[in-house]
Amino acid sequence: MFQFIGRLSATAVGAAALTATMFGAAPASAEEIVARLSYHWAPAHQSAIFCEEFAKRVNERGEGKIRIETFPSGQLFGIREIMGALSSGAVELGGVVGVVSFPPVDKNYNVEAMPGMFKDFAQLRRFFQEDETGQEIWNGVLKRTRTQFIGYNPTGPYMTFSAVRPLTSPEAFVGLKARYLAGIERPRWSALGADAVSMPTREVYTALQNGMIDTFNTVPAAIKAYSWWEHVKYGQLPFLFHADAFTLANQAWYDDLPDDVKQILLEVGAEIGAESTKSIMEFSTQVLNEFEERGGQVDTLTDEQLAAFTKVDDEKVIPELGDFVDANVIEAARAFVAN
């Protein structure tokens, strides 16, 4: 725990505590528990919609017992800040994107973002729930960050977009300016010949507008929610990986809750997880259809084209992933999906 907080820096944790004080929960009756749910997604993003639905259902079923107040669009904490805020107790509940928040705690969670490793959210989650290696990663992250899993709220399937040209061959990436959010994306951009720059979500629109970046990996929902489709023109399928996200709670806060309130949170969390997972895949298809109606182009790679990218991944990318995923974890994931 202390090692993790140290990596976030004392300044970041102090700022989180100060922000929590500034945005303190409204007064409640002696019996009612008031909790804050912080998430970074814009209101139109499917994950934001389901955060609001989660709070709504908990408030209805727990009326007089618990009330959740939501703080969207990073009002309290951004995508890279929320994990530290939850760990320190600066906020009670948070929307957490696994591939962003978990690797600083255990680099091996990066296995989620390996191109083509897991075919869907169900297979990805089963790896962390059923496989011994996957369980060790998942349980270790929650224990070290002192957080409690409440439910799934996936960000969506990741794919590659470009503002410059179709992405139908590895050569198409040479010279492009690529934004990355998760560190594990960087080796692949380099292998494809693109210049990679780390950039938070809030800066992407302006960077596209001024030409600072012209390609990136993201979920279809994001190009609509953040209006990025005003600048990107091309998309590449199949999906690279499935980016899971979660509603997590500060463990100490959760442990102090009455059992009936815990039950409400977990029941609603399970419902939202099932609904949001189904919805995000349908919504992704809908967004891509809208993207094409707006003049965008989505190219589904042929077997031959896909083989060319797989060759780059096998020969250039995976050998460079030692700093991101241990070899035994990659082997365990491959064995799991093969069976």
Structure description:
With 339 residues, this protein is an alpha/beta fold. The protein folds into 2 domains: 2-155 and 243-284, 3-Layer(aba) Sandwich (D-Maltodextrin-Binding Protein, domain 2), CATH 3.40.190.170; 157-242 and 290-338, D-Maltodextrin-Binding Protein, domain 2 (3-Layer(aba) Sandwich), CATH 3.40.190.170. It is 47% helix and 18% strand. It has helices spanning 2-8, 10-22, 46-61, 82-88, 98-101, 121-130, 132-145, 186-192, 204-210, 220-225, 251-255, 259-293, 303-317, 327-338; strands spanning 33-38, 66-71, 93-97, 147-152, 156-162, 177-180, 195-198, 215-218, 234-243, 245-250, 297-300. The protein has a 6-stranded mixed β-sheet, with helices on both faces. Strands 2-1-3-10-4 form a 5-stranded mixed β-sheet, with helices on both faces. Helix 3 links the parallel strand 1 and strand 2. Helix 1 (2-8) packs across helix 2 (10-22), helix 3 runs antiparallel to helix 12 (259-293) and helix 6 (121-130) packs across helix 7. Residues 1-29 have low confidence and may be disordered. Its main location: periplasm. This is TRAP transporter substrate-binding protein. Belongs to the bacterial solute-binding protein 7 family. Residues 1-30 form the signal peptide. Pfam families: DctP.
